[in-house]
Structures are given as C-alpha cells and as structure tokens.
Amino acid sequence: MSTAPHRGSLDGSDEDSLLRSTAGAIAERCRSGSSEAGDHLRCRAALADAGLLELRSRDEDGAPLATATQAGIVVEELARSTCGAGLAGTTIAAELLAATGAPDTGDAATVALRADLESWAEPGDAVVWDAAGAARALAVVDGSVVAYATGSEIAQADISRTLLATGSSRTLTAVEAATASRVITFAHLVLTADLLGTASGILDDAVAYAGTRVQFGKPIGTFQAVQHLCARAFVQVEAMRSSLVYASWLFDADHDRREAEEAALVAKAYASEVAVEVIEAAVQVFGGIAITWEFPAHLHLRRALLTARVLGGPAVLQRRVLSRSEG
User: Fold this and answer.
1) Residue 276, SS3?
2) What is the architecture of the domain spanning 179-326?
3) What residue spans define the domains of the chain?
4) Are 128 and 163 in contact (CB under 8 A)?
C-alpha cells in the first residue's frame, strides 16, 4: 500500500484517493449522528475487512503497509462523520507495537492514557481511550511498553468514542526514549488528522446549509456576515491541512527526526485550538438547530474538545514547541 509521500496534498495518488473514498463509504452510516456502539462496531468490522486496521503493520521488509500520510487520510475521513470505530487508537497502538518490537498477541489493541488524556497511562491513573472493539490497551510507562486489560465503560463528554476502565497490566518490553518519542510524533499526526476531519466535516455541512436555508427571501449564504464566518473557518481548516501535510511528509521522509517532531507538535497544537473554533463557527451558521440533541453538531464539538487534550492540549504543546526552539 505504501507509496512515496507527496508534500503538497494528502491525496497524492489514485491509491490515496481510493483510500479516502473507501473510508468515507464505511463511515457514511455514522453521518446520521448515531452514537450507538453497534453502529461503530459494524464500521470497525468493515474497516477490518478492507485491511484499514492494519495500516501501520509492517511487511516482511519491516516497512509499514501504509505511510503516515495515508493513515491520516483514513483517520480524517472517519472523523468527518464522527465515526467511533476506534481507528485512531488502533493505529497508534499498531505503531507502538511495530516500533518497539513488542509481542503482538493478535488481540485488538488501542492506547491507555491518563484519566485527563494528556499523556500515556501511569500507575494508578489509566483509562482505555478510543476503545471500540479493543481487547487491550498499550502505553509507554517508565520506559516500557505496558499492556492493560480492558474493563467497564466510563461515561465521557465525547459520546462518539468508547472509554473504558483498565484492568490488570503486564510489561511487554523495554522501549528506548528515541523510539517512544517517534511514536508520540506519529500519534500527534493521527490526532491532527482526527481533529481536521471532525472540523471539516461539520463545516462542509454548514456551508451547504447556508446555500439552502432562506431568510428574508434569500439564502443565508448570501449575507456578508455568514460569508465572512465561513471564509475564516475555511482558511483555518486549510491551515490545519497544510500543517498536517507538511508534518506527515517529514515523518515519512525520515531524514530529520527533530524537524518532524517539531512539525507534528505545531500541527497538533494548532489543530487542538482551531478545530474547536471552526466547529463553533459552523454552529453559528446552523443556528438554533445546531444545539438540538438530534443534530450532529454537538458530536463534532464534543469530539474535538476531547481529542484536543489527547497526548497534550494546545497550551502544553505550545510550551513544548517554545522550549525546543529556545534549546
């Protein structure tokens, strides 16, 4: 599946476009705004049938089956429909297993985080994130890869994803600091793609709505205030996309790991802040209908608010970027 990354576009080849259309077709069932776990598990089964849960598995030569750019395409497309099939967590866990050489039991895995989602799980403070269909969760704890059993479901604000308690844990293998850092860089790319899809999906719907919703005898999209609102949000989405394209290209090229890490930090920090602003702009375009339970806007807002915190919120990541530049 892997192809040479393209610096200027996420969809750099026919294969990339096919990945996007396949993922979009799978996630289409979620566009109704359903948050039923059964719907997400059916999406997960379809992803498995299409081989999209193994994007970062390695071939016989040790190369990933898909580039980080391609993984981002699939993650973004599912996020556009707030699909909770657990792809983001599964993809990060697969990267952790492959990068560290930890034994893979074949059980579906996701990642374990602290309860505040800001970093890897810690002893006595662990939850299973993006857990749909997962039988275990992985984390880097005190220089080792640790596997947690999954427990009961935990209520959370992001009702498009499944959050579970953790059970027993066991250490799988030691991990070098450089390897752990590279996995975090990859995770930031995946999370940026998720935020991009979450924001762009609802903005596209809002722009389409503005062209059909009539007030005072005219579509609201003809009003300058609405045009400015949508235009600013569109620029923010494209800035998110550009930062993701560049950071993914650097990661795939693998010629300067420090630069790739910094670009991924910048991309995740920016997306964590701006995705929420874009969704709030879309809510304004939709008006009163956007604050109803039946309408999917709240699913996008909830998802962006929580995903923004995963492995570092905007303030935390901005400080890291500044500290690296000063160093």
Assistant:
1) helix
2) Up-down Bundle (1.20)
3) 179-326
4) yes
